[in-house]
Amino acid sequence: MPDVIDASDRSAVVRAAELILDGGIVAFPTETVYGLGALASSDRAIGRVYAAKGRPSSNPLIAHVADRASAAIFAEFDERADRLAEKFWPGPLTLVLPLKVPSAISMVMSAGLSTVAVRVPAHPVARALLGAVELPVAAPSANRSGHVSPTTAAHVAGEFGNEVSLVLDGGSCEVGVESTVVDLSDPDRVRLLRPGAIDRQALERLIGPLCAPAADGPVRAPGMMLRHYSPDTAIRLDATSVDADEALLAFGPKPLEGAATALNLSEAGNLDEAASRLYGMMRQLDQSRARCIAVMPVPAHGLGEAINDRLRRAAIADGKASAA
Ligand code: TXA
Ligand code: MG
After folding, report:
1. Nearest CA to 36 among 146, 171, 165?
2. Could you say which ligand is closest to the alpha carbon of residue 35?
């Protein structure tokens, strides 16, 4: 298992930054999920991240930076991108923008595309780390490709060996689902590639209607019905009854009765609370040895779009193509 150290100690962040600058991989907390950080300019370091995750090399990573000015060094901002960055950064929004040429971003990180995904995280540990590295840090979610994303340092440590140099422990992630990914690279069609922590309505109020991902887009992973975020136990969605040999993932004040074991995403029916608990509870129920995890319906509005997206992909049966 990799070393796990308390991120509230300033020397821990300095050590993490040195390891990244040296080509190592460091897991760190963001407000959404833990990320697996490596220097975005280093083909070798990025290659190690793909190998550690078992991620297909065709699926590009997000470059994390401290602020918009650092992003503008390698990504082209138009007026809408500026408006989104102004309103939501730092925060859980990722923008896909044209990649400037030449740039220091590794072609391995961007999967050779003419676009790049950028994000300015809000978590104080992520900000301190990016401030200390002073260069873009690629950071996919710190899980093996296709598995449930990690929201605690213990989740990360349980998935990796010493290919990860260090895990910075910043406690539980507050939001609990990944950033929203918006593709602004085609000015005629702004696309919501991945529903996430910033909900569609908040984005559409600012820049107008968002299109679905292109069926023939350069990256097939986000927005597509690929298996992803999956525990080993089978998942059954929209449960209105539950069997004695099933585990229940409930939502709301009236959980179904009769399951072998049950956890409630939010007794109060609060979607923010449900998102923050989703991955941790999926992991817990996965260990219950139940035949199947039955999931009660979760409303689709607000953060519910992201929660339902993750649940649908988690429920796709094993054997289908997966991506990180
Ligand atoms: O909340 C998050 O975004 C977390 C934390 C660690 O920041 N990171 C994360 O990274 O979720 P990852 O690699 O698990 O997901 C990144 C998503 C993938 O679906 C990838 O296909 C998409 O962003 N992506 C990256 N670059 C892209 C590009 N140039 N065009 C389209 N999609 C892109
Ligand atoms: Mg991921």
Report:
1. 165
2. 1
Ligand number nearest to the C-alpha of 178: 1
Q: Please provide the average confidence, as pLDDT, over all residues in the chain.
A: 94
Q: So what CATH class is 3-207?
A: alpha beta
pTM of the model: 0.96
> What are the residue boundaries of the structural domains of the chain, listed by start?
3-207, 234-320
Tell me how far the alpha carbon of residue 322 lies from the centroid of ligand 1, in angstroms.
14
Residue nearest to atom 24 of ligand 1 (CA): 60
pLDDT one-digit tens code per residue, 80-134: 999 999 999 999 999 999 999 999 999 999 999 999 999 999 999 999 999 999 9
Please say if the pLDDT value at position 299 is more than 80. yes
C-alpha to C-alpha distances, 247 to 230, 287, 309, nearest whole angstrom = 15, 10, 20
pLDDT at 18 over 90: yes
Q: Give the tens place of pLDDT for each residue, 101-110.
A: 999 999 999 9
